[in-house]
Amino acid sequence: TARMGSSASTGGADPGVGALVRDIGLAIIPLHLKHSYESIVQIVETAMKLRQFDEAPYNNNSIMLIALLRNAQMEPEAAEPCLQLQAVRDLSGAAGCEADLRAEERFERDRVFGRYATSIFRASWNMTAAGQASCMGVEEEDVLFSWFSDDSDKHCPKFMVLLDHDTASVVLVIRGTFSFKDALMDVVCEEAEFLDGFAHKGFIDGSRKVMDKCSNVIEKALIDNFGYQLVVCGHSMGGSVAAMITLELLRSTRYPVLPPGITARCVALGSAPVYRTEGDLSQQYLERVDVYVNEKDVVPRLSLGSVAKLLAMLREVDGLGLSFDEQLGVVMWREEDAAVMNRERVRRAVKGVRQDRFCYLQHPGQVTRLTNKCGSVEVRGEGMEGARDIAENME
Which of 83, 91, 131, 262 is 20 to 30 A from 64, comparing alpha carbons? Predict the structure, then answer.
């Protein structure tokens, strides 16, 4: 039986033709887009393995279909892109926008927790307590607990609990997934009831395993360090688990670790959408959960609903019946009338796609978008519509 993604157009032809088409498709993708493009290829391949969506064969090579889709989501580059990225203040001229000023203030406030969220990857490979503390930039005595073992529970996310005296915080740092392919298998997962809505079942389970191991440590640390807040942070899948832990601490008594007058907040870098509710998000979530999305990072757009929409878009593009030469004309930004017309056909087809077979998960907090601007980072606070667009659309 032909599977989704097979190339029906090559039929019984030389299998080398398929490899040639793939090589051409990869060669024409601009350098600065290759990371997100290759991530989308992995998403499609994962979805094909899961066989949850559409098993009918494509009429065109899936690599070229993805190239057409990416083309429809972007504008041609006016000049060679600037590839340096430095975490500095926004220089884009948006200082007059109050929302962006608040976003910039949050960004500066949370940078220390962002460093913890990324430094834990190196710390988790260090075999000594002193080495782990050094990787995190804290004193050894300020590391209260760490869990980097796979011996008894390989499904528990790796994490650390430490003290940050400069910000008066007890910090729970969750390590993300090392492999993007593993992350895909984690994200394309069923949901379960959670608080006043639904959430990603895998992250619910992971967050509770973390808290089962360290809730007593956190409770004692908050008592011993009067007035300290609790900050839960993580990068990528670690940020998703951090968000789930924070939601449960804010709205549930399952883990009563917070002393009176003390609350928790979350700093999630590049986390996946994890939660949905029928109504608007709680204002408490918006105030206590900060999600930072780096430009075209795929993970913050990755859920079962967005993968289903991606495949629906590929199906629509496939149905346009473009010849291989017409596809090349679109992807290579040819300017003749036929190529321009076909490019517009692809854009209209992609823009009109809707899918309601799978529900979309959302980011349960304030989303801030970080965009590379040739050596600086533009910091922009997203409203509800912008946050929803990020969570529901693969780019």
Answer: 83
Q: Which residues lie across from 230 on neighbouring strands?
A: 170, 264
Q: 169 has which bridge partners?
A: 164, 229
State the pLDDT at residue 60.
Answer: 82
Closest CA to 240 of 270, 210, 217, 212: 270
The first and second tokens of residue 118, run together, are 């990324």
Residue 160 to residue 158: CA distance in whole angstroms:
7
Q: Per-residue pLDDT tens for 326-338?
A: 988 888 888 899 9
Contacts of 352 (CB under 8 A, 6+ apart): 316
Q: With CA atoms as reference, report the closest residue to 84 among 29, 27, 32.
A: 32
Centroid of chain to Cα 121 = 17
Strands (E), 257-376: 264-269, 275-276, 289-294, 366-372
Q: Nearest to residue 24, comparing CAs of 73, 69, 64? A: 64
Backbone angles phi, psi at 98, to 5 degrees: -60, -40
Q: Read out DSSP for 281-333?
A: PPHHHHHHEEEEEETT-SGGG-SHHHHHHHHHHHHHHHTT---HHHHHHHHTT
Q: CA distances (Å), 250 to each of 155, 191, 256, 292, in order?
A: 24, 20, 10, 20
Q: Are 330 and 68 in contact (CB under 8 A)?
A: yes
CA pair distance 165, 142, nearest whole angstrom:
9
Residue 323's φ and ψ, nearest 5 degrees, are: -70, 170
3 state SS of 292: strand
User: Given the structure tokens 């700093």, which residue do they identify?
Assistant: 267
Residue 384, both tokens: 């509800």
How many whole angstroms separate alpha carbon 365 and alpha carbon 137?
Answer: 28
For residue 218 the two structure tokens come to 């956190």
298 within 8 A of 327, measured Cβ to Cβ? no
CA distance 53 to 64: 20
226: phi then psi, degrees, rounded to nearest 5: -55, 130
Neighbour count for residue 299 (Cβ, 10 Å): 25
- Mutual orientation of helices 337-351 and 324-331 as an angle, nearest 10°? 80
User: For the segment 30-89, what is each residue's pLDDT rounded down to a tens digit?
Assistant: 555 555 555 566 556 555 544 555 667 788 888 888 888 888 877 554 444 433 334 444
Whose tokens are 């379960």? That residue is 192
